[in-house]
Amino acid sequence: MNTAVIRYRIPGLGTATDALILLWPALNFLKIRLWVPKEFEMVMRSLQAAHSVSLPPDVVCTPFLRLDRDEQGLRIPENARLMLEPRQKPEDLVGVQLQVAINEGPNGTAPYLYAVVLTHGQETSWRKASSFRAPGYVIEPGGDASYGTVVIRQHTDNGGYQTSPEDCSRLVETAIALLEKNHLNESIPMQIMLPQVLHKDPALL
User: Fold this and answer.
1) Which of 65-74 are b and which e, b meaning 16 or more Cβ less than 10 Å from the residue's Cβ?
2) CB 105 within 8 A of CB 161
3) Rounded distance, CA 178 to CA 12, Å?
4) What pLDDT is recorded for position 66?
5) What is the pLDDT of residue 21?
C-alpha cells in the first residue's frame, strides 16, 4: 500500500490560520472528488480549532497531510497533523506535533487532540520538556536515545477523553507556553532556509 505525506512550509506567517491557506484547497478537492472517512473529518475539525489560535511571531506552524490509496488506487486522506516550531530552535529540537486520536466514549467515537514534543535524543530540550507542568495536563516523557518524545495531553477523567474546540485551543496555548517559557528556542541569527526534505521520523508518518 502506497502512502504519501504532503508537507507545507510557509515562512513568515504569524498565525496558524494563515498556514492552512495552502492546505485547504487540497482538502476541499479531496472532499469533492474522493471519499473522506468520518474519522478524518473529526481530525480536521480538531485541527481547525487548533488553527484558530494566533501564534507569536517567533513560532511557525507546518501542516502535514497524509494520503493513502484505496482498493481502486485512488488517493484518500488518511491523517493530518500540525507541527509547531520556534523560528530559531536548538539543534536537538524537532518541534511540537499536534495530532488527533479517535477515542471510544459513552456517546460513541470522539476526537482527542494531544501534543508530542519531538527531539533528537534525550538531551537538553527533552529534559526541559519533561519537566514542564501545566494544570489539567498529563506530561509523559518517552522515546529513546535516537528520538525523544514528551506527550502533553489533557486528563481523561470527567469526560476528558474527548477534546472540544476550546480544549484544542487551550492545548495550542499550552504548547506555546512550553516553547517560550521553557526556552525551547534560541536567539541566534536567522540562516538562509534551504529546501527541506520531509523528516523520515516514524512519529511524523
Assistant:
1) bbbeeeeeee
2) yes
3) 21
4) 78
5) 35
State the DSSP string of 10-38: -TT--BHHHHTTTHHHHHHHHHHHS---H
Cell of 85: 516550531
Predicted TM-score (pTM) of the model is: 0.73
Q: What averages of pLDDT result for each successive group of 10 residues across the chain (205 residues)?
A: 43 35 44 61 91 92 81 74 93 95 86 96 95 95 95 86 94 94 56 36 42
Q: Which ranges in the chain belong to alpha helices (H)?
A: 16-19, 23-33, 38-51, 124-130, 165-181
Checking 195-201 for CB contacts under 8 A at 24+ apart, the result is 196/7, 196/9, 198/5, 198/7, 199/94, 201/94, 201/118, 201/147
3-state secondary structure (DSSP) of residue 136: coil
Question: For residues 28 and 19, what is the distance between their CA atoms, to the nearest angstrom?
Answer: 16
- Burial profile 118-136: b = 16 or more Cβ within 10 angstroms, e = fewer: bbbebeebbebbbebebee
